[in-house]
Specification:
heterodimer, A: Rossmann fold, six-stranded mixed beta sheet, four-stranded antiparallel beta sheet, 8 helices, 10 strands, B: 485 residues, 23 strands, 33% strand
């Protein structure tokens, strides 16, 4: 089975400073990987490099997505090809209704896949189904994108987008941060519902908390820009108990 | 029309950027080039005008001559001096038909409208919008007359109103924008060719949105439209004005005057989508849009609301204003001004509070991209008698790129202690985070920019009538093409 994502000896700089220093990682379809690590270890940088953010330069190594060179693709092409990043801090877009944003994104992706764009009625029906699963009201979905949202609402809106766009590779950047226990369960349920044999997920998190609800197949520890350990879900529990320092990793 | 083929070649090369750029080959009946008393007489004669109107024009022309071509210079715009003698002041489709129906319209004209996406037939059947289409300077088709006349509404070319309703025209023409108001208004008063006239009788709610499409066509013909809308006591009317213009290399002057009069308890809603040719990406060509628009809330409890989406023209010089004379009258100004490449816009409003408890609200959204310069210039004036006057002003500017400018010049003059005047202003840029967020969801950079800008403009877009709002949103995208990446 060919991996969906294959990262080899990845080095990357942010504003000229090297943050990723030789990452190796392969994720197969159906797998859920967790990347854990202390602050400043390069977790968010990894997610932005995969999304193609400006200023995040790959200086060495390779990233293959479904066998193709990911670094050659513009951010929107990556998205249309099935990469979804749930942002740690989703940005506000004043005046743009959540449904409008979702529909624009949804149809852009469908068009790229050679599928017919949905009309307003079909689209709304689909959104209603998905939003109900995430305990979201019509009002929440219609409000301007992320404007005045609580932390939990922002994360749920990210999950709604993910559910609509049905990515092949979902990258969840600190999706558990800022969530109370009820919201955490709702979001975790949303993630679990999307687990599928043809879909891979990369969960980036500081804490083990989310992993109690979304059980990963493989856990990696990122420190100093490198993956220093990999193991099964028990590694996350070990980290939770002992802290990053005990594992021979340096906290930033 | 000698260089039509050349123009067409230019058009083909540039239609991506400005899809409304084309010239229709129709013979014009044109006044000789230049401007003197004989030009005025030519126009007046062509229109078979009564003596009083000719005199009115001549008086304005003499006034204009005394101004010695001293154009106003306070606006933050720059352009080469205009040679007013090097232009034509009257041009009409040669065989002016007296039309009973659209079937009688020159097929070439209809084709033009089709290219513009405004097929009259379809509009007539589907939209329920009465259209007084101004092609160059003469109106050629007016629809829905019967339905309107049932309600006593008069909606016709102003030249027709001069013939059929002289008492109304005489009473209100120049009563809001006096002949001596400003350089361009004075010029317009002398040479105006056509425009719309609307009268809504007492107590009548106009049964449909009224709209006019303006177009500049013949080369080097300035357009001097004159529009007069009178809403009698307790009446209501919503008027839509949309403009597109064909591709041109030389600058073209457009100096229109729009006057609105709202009597007791009357309301006028005036919406504009302006998409004149803005010039190319190097700042060559484009329309000069020097327009005087003003409304008088003459009666108590009257209301005038201006909504404008300004995306076109090389230079926009425009301040739709409200004179709040009647007690409890309300003035509103909602504006989106988008400038790209080398466009310049100096636009805003004046709210003159005279009556008691008068209210005004100003929401202005300026977007600058490329090398463009955009200025909001607004005056809020509270006169001594305007006890309890209130104003709220919000001016937001959005910059795209680092070569453009946005300026806000608010003037506030308060001469009554009880007045409350609020002013808020912001300037922002589209952030990298916003662009990344959108692109990560599959939107191209241009689509992301359009979406973000439309969001920025939302407060104003939602003031537009439905069909205009859709068109305006598309225009926002078209106007910003080439501004990112």
């Amino acid at each position: 089975m060919a991996p969906i994502l294959e990262i080899k000896d990845l080095h990357a700089t942010v504003d000229g400073k090297e943050v990723l220093k030789g990452i190796n990682l392969a994720i197969n379809p159906g797998e859920v990987h967790a990347v854990m690590g202390p602050n400043g270890s390069g977790k968010s940088t990894l997610s932005y490099v995969l999304a193609g953010r400006n200023g995040y330069e790959v200086t060495k190594g390779s990233i293959l997505y479904k066998g193709a060179d990911l670094t050659a693709m513009e951010p929107e092409i990556r998205a249309r090809e099935g990469i979804f990043l749930a942002f740690q801090y989703p940005v506000e877009i004043p005046g743009v209704a959540g449904t409008t944003f979702l529909k624009t994104a949804y149809n852009a992706v469908r068009k790229h896949r050679g599928e017919k764009e949905l009309d307003a009625m079909q689209f709304l029906k689909l959104v209603r189904e998905k939003q109900a699963e995430l305990d979201m009201t019509d009002d929440m979905v219609r409000r301007p994108v992320n404007v005045g949202f609580s932390g939990g609402e922002k994360k749920r809106y990210e999950m709604l987008q993910m559910a609509m766009l049905e990515p092949a590779l979902a990258i969840l950047d600190e999706t558990d941060s800022g969530l109370d226990i009820d919201a955490l369960k709702t979001v975790a349920d949303g993630i679990n519902r999307l687990r599928a044999p043809d879909r891979a997920m990369l969960m980036i998190t500081h804490y083990q908390r989310l992993l109690g609800y979304v059980v990963p197949d493989i856990v990696h520890v990122l420190a100093g820009g490198k993956i220093v350990r990999s193991g099964d879900k028990s590694l996350a529990l070990e980290l939770e108990k002992e802290g990053y320092a005990v594992l021979g990793t340096e906290a930033a | 029309m000698a260089d039509v083929s050349e123009t067409e070649t230019i058009n083909q090369a540039t239609t991506e950027r400005y899809k409304y750029g084309f010239v229709t080959d129709i013979e014009s009946d044109t006044a000789p080039k230049g401007l003197d008393e004989s030009t005025i007489r030519f126009i007046s004669d062509k229109k078979e005008e009564p003596e009083w109107l000719l005199e009115w024009r001549l008086k304005a022309f003499r006034m204009w001559q005394e101004l010695g071509e001293e154009e106003p210079s306070w606006a933050k715009v720059s352009f080469p001096k205009i040679d007013y003698q090097d232009a034509y002041y009257y041009s009409a489709p040669k065989e002016k038909p007296l039309l009973e129906s659209l079937d009688d319209v020159d097929p070439k004209l209809l084709e033009t409208y089709n290219k513009l996406g405004i097929p009259l037939q379809e509009q007539k059947m589907l939209a329920g919008v009465a259209v007084d289409a101004v092609f160059d300077s003469v109106s050629v088709a007016t629809t829905f007359k019967e339905e309107l006349s049932k309600h006593g509404v008069i909606f016709c070319p102003i030249s027709e109103a001069v013939q059929k309703h002289p008492e109304l025209v005489k009473k209100y023409l120049g009563s809001v924008v006096p002949t001596a108001d400003n350089f361009y208004a004075t010029l317009n008063s002398a040479v105006f060719t056509d425009g719309s006239f609307v009268y809504i009788p007492e107590g009548v709610r106009c049964p449909m949105e009224l709209s006019t499409y303006f177009r500049i066509n013949a080369a080097e013909t300035g357009q001097f439209e004159r529009t007069l809308i009178v809403a009698d006591k307790g009446s209501y009317v919503s008027y839509l004005e949309g403009c597109t213009a064909p591709m041109r290399d030389e600058h073209q002057l457009h100096a229109a005057v729009v006057e609105l009069v709202a009597l007791d308890d009357a309301e006028i809603k005036y919406s504009t989508v302006q998409n004149w040719y803005p010039g190319d990406e190097n700042g060559k060509g484009g329309i000069y849009n020097f327009v005087t628009k003003r409304g008088a809330c003459r009666g108590k409890n009257s209301k005038i609301s201006w909504t404008q989406v300004e995306t076109g023209s090389a230079i926009t010089w425009k301040y739709p204003s409200c004179i709040l004379q009647g007690d409890n009258s309300v003035g509103e100004f909602y504006s989106i001004a988008i400038t790209n490449n080398y466009q310049q816009a100096d636009t805003g409003t004046k709210m003159i509070h005279m009556g008691k408890n008068t209210k005004s609200r100003i929401i202005s959204k300026g977007i600058s991209a490329g090398h463009a310069d955009s200025t909001y210039r607004g005056l809020v004036k509270v006169m001594p008698g305007a006890t309890g006057a209130r104003n709220f002003t919000q001016c937001d500017s959005l910059l795209i790129g680092d070569q453009c400018g946005a300026h806000t010049v608010p003037y506030i003059e308060v001469r009554n202690k009880t007045a409350q005047v609020e002013h808020e202003a912001t300037t922002s840029k589209i952030s990298d985070e916003q662009l990344l967020y959108c692109r990560q969801r599959g939107l191209s950079e241009e689509d992301a920019t359009t979406l973000i800008v439309n969001g920025f403009c939302r407060q104003v877009l939602q003031e537009l009538p439905m069909e205009f709002a859709v068109e305006a949103q598309k225009l926002v995208g078209i106007s910003l093409e080439g501004s990112v990446g």
